[in-house]
Specification:
mainly alpha, flat
Length: 299
């Protein structure tokens, strides 16, 4: 009986311990300054002392475990509303009543797929936070705060991409596909939901591209002029990605997916130019700062 009460008490304390651990990591994230050492020296230390890699692997395990647990909770929460979400996703074809299941496990698989996508969208800020907390110890304090502020922006971009796919791409693509050639279609929930969620998810991921380019340009890893000079190659790569993302083989749907990705690429060039100007302005300000000699050490 005592073991049952002990296990029950640990279960009650688990959410509070979780919140405390995350808050401690965020506090350390905002206050601790990293050790300023060259990359070659860091690699040499890691080779000389392989035991130190286990510390980083253990930290990665901890952050990934917490991210997976958060995703599991949001997915379980989304499962309670999966029926309403499927009805919303099926509005372009007449709602959930227009979907006809053939296999006995098809409705359950459809519910799980929708719950997982919804849970991922809800848990995305927390998942990014856990990954950023793992990478943060090697970054400066300003870079940490900048990355922390980028988390809500990345979430808004992902949700904006999903909304764009639902309100712009799907109302154009689905009627064309369903009524193509005058053939009456019997829409299965598994194939329809797979098509819709794939489009929404990958367009949401594609909408992260401008933010990633801005961050890379802000730290000096990429330049807007280089992106602009390689726009032909970028369009070819985008076409390949659009063909891989599109679950169908028709060029119309592929063009609908490819169009916003091309726009996002040129928007990324604009953001990269802005980031470069901001970075150069900061360098100029730091170089013009007055020199303050060190105070003499009295002996």
């Amino acid at each position: 009986m005592r073991k049952i009460f002990t296990a029950f008490w640990r279960l009650i304390k688990l959410p509070f311990r979780w919140i405390k651990n995350v808050s401690d990591d965020i506090s350390e994230f905002l206050t601790e300054e990293p050790e300023d050492s060259p990359l070659a020296d860091s690699l040499q230390k890691a080779v000389a002392n392989p035991q130190s890699l286990l510390i980083h692997l253990d930290a990665l395990r901890k952050h990934l475990l917490r991210a997976v647990l958060g995703l599991a909770l949001t997915t379980a929460f989304s499962f309670a509303f999966a029926s309403k979400i499927i009805d919303i996703l099926a509005q372009p074809v007449g709602g959930i009543g227009s979907l006809v299941a053939i296999d006995p496990t098809e409705p359950l698989g459809t519910f799980m797929r929708v719950s997982l996508l919804t849970g991922f969208a809800i848990a995305l800020p927390y998942v990014i936070l856990e990954l950023w907390l793992f990478a943060a110890p090697g970054l400066s304090r300003d870079a940490r705060i900048f990355g922390l502020l980028a988390i809500p922006v990345a979430t808004l971009f992902f949700i904006g991409g999903m909304a764009f796919a639902y309100y712009v791409l799907l109302p154009t693509a689905i009627p064309f596909l369903v009524n193509f050639g005058g053939i009456t279609s019997q829409i299965r929930p598994s194939s329809y939901i797979r098509f819709v969620t794939s489009i929404m998810f990958w367009i949401g991921v594609a909408f992260q591209f401008p933010l990633i380019i801005y961050v890379l340009a802000r730290v000096g890893l990429i330049r807007g002029k280089v992106l602009l000079s390689q726009w032909r190659l970028a369009i070819v790569i985008i076409a390949i990605l659009a063909a891989a993302i599109t679950p169908t083989v028709d060029p119309g749907t592929m063009a609908l997916v490819m169009g916003p990705m091309v726009v996002l690429y040129f928007f990324s060039i604009f953001l990269a130019s802005m980031a470069e100007r901001s970075r150069n302005r900061k360098k100029l300000t730091d170089s013009e700062a007055p020199f303050q000699p060190e105070a003499p050490n009295p002996k």
